Every structure is written in structure tokens, then in C-alpha cells.
């Protein structure tokens, strides 16, 4: 993200997401389900 980027209230985007219960399943060997859900939520905030 550039430092020159600014929030444009007139700009909208629809981002399809998976169900939180199935978020980041490939990380199941490393993270617990709640950890994967938290990671997914944090990643969504960056979009």
C-alpha cells in the first residue's frame, strides 16, 4: 500500500469470502481453528 493512498468514501468493492469455519484450512497443522479465524479476520481488515 502506498503512502499516497487515501480513503475514497465513494469507492466500494464486494469481496467474496469463505465461511469463517473453513478459513485458512491449509494451516490446520500449525494453527488452531480460533487462531485461523483470527488470522482470517485480520487479513480481511487489510482489504
UniProtKB/TrEMBL annotation:
GO function terms (MF aspect): phospholactate guanylyltransferase activity
InterPro entries xrefs: CofC, Nucleotide-diphossugar_trans
Matching Gene3D superfamilies: Spore Coat Polysaccharide Biosynthesis Protein SpsA, Chain A
Name of this protein: 2-phospho-L-lactate guanylyltransferase CofC
The species this protein was found in: marine metagenome
Amino acid at each position: 500500500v502506498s503512502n499516497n493512498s487515501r480513503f475514497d468514501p465513494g469507492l466500494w468493492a464486494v469481496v467474496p469470502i469463505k465461511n469463517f469455519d473453513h478459513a485458512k484450512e491449509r494451516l490446520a497443522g500449525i494453527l488452531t481453528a480460533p487462531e485461523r479465524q483470527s488470522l482470517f479476520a485480520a487479513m480481511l481488515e487489510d482489504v
